[in-house]
């Protein structure tokens, strides 16, 4: 099983910056993809950004140019640097990992507990 622990959420003013992180631990063979999703009250969860172990990255159009995702494979940690924050970025941000527990197994999805990011007007 993989455990994902997030940190770095908080309250910031519009135009400010925030960095959140997610560290993976537990029993696993490999983690191919790590990423961030977010969900606002009354809204469905949406993809923010993902990064593979090889460094391939994709962003949602709404955050491209403002957010930067990065990954430290040695530490099994993924980061999201959020700049030029807007009130519409307010949401609970969830860490996601797609991991194999054995070399022959299928990858499975794991989720963090979520961290609140609030951007004031």
In short:
This protein is mainly beta and 121 residues long.
Question: How would you summarize the topology of this molecule?
Answer:
Elements (H helix, E strand, L loop, with lengths): L1 E6 L2 E4 L4 E9 L3 E10 L6 E7 L4 E3 L7 E6 L4 E6 L8 E10 L7 E4 L3 E6 L1
Parallel strand pairs: 2-11
Antiparallel strand pairs: 1-3, 3-8, 4-5, 4-9, 5-6, 7-8, 9-10, 9-11
Instruction: Give the strand content.
Output: over 45%
Q: Report the span from N to C terminus.
A: 40 Å
Count of extended strands: 11
Count of runs of 4 or more consecutive helical residues? 0
Provide the residue-averaged pLDDT: 94
**Percentage of residues assigned to helices:** under 10%
Return the string of H and E elements: EEEEEEEEEEE
Structural class by helix and strand composition: mainly beta
Shape: elongated
Radius of gyration: 14 Å
Largest beta-sheet characterization: 7 strands, mixed
Low-confidence stretches: none
Describe the structure using short key phrases.
0% helix, elongated, mainly beta, 121 residues, four-stranded antiparallel sheet, seven-stranded mixed sheet, single chain
């Amino acid at each position: 099983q993989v455990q994902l622990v997030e940190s770095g959420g908080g309250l910031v003013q519009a135009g400010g910056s925030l960095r959140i992180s997610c560290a993976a631990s537990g029993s696993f063979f490999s983690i191919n993809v790590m990423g961030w999703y977010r969900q606002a009250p009354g809204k469905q969860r949406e993809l923010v950004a993902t990064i593979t172990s090889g460094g391939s990255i994709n962003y949602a159009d709404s955050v491209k140019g403002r957010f930067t995702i990065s990954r430290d494979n040695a530490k099994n940690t993924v980061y999201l640097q959020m700049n030029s924050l807007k009130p519409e970025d307010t949401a609970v941000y969830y860490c996601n990992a797609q991991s194999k527990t054995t070399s022959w197994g299928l990858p499975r999805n794991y989720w963090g507990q979520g961290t609140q990011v609030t951007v004031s007007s």
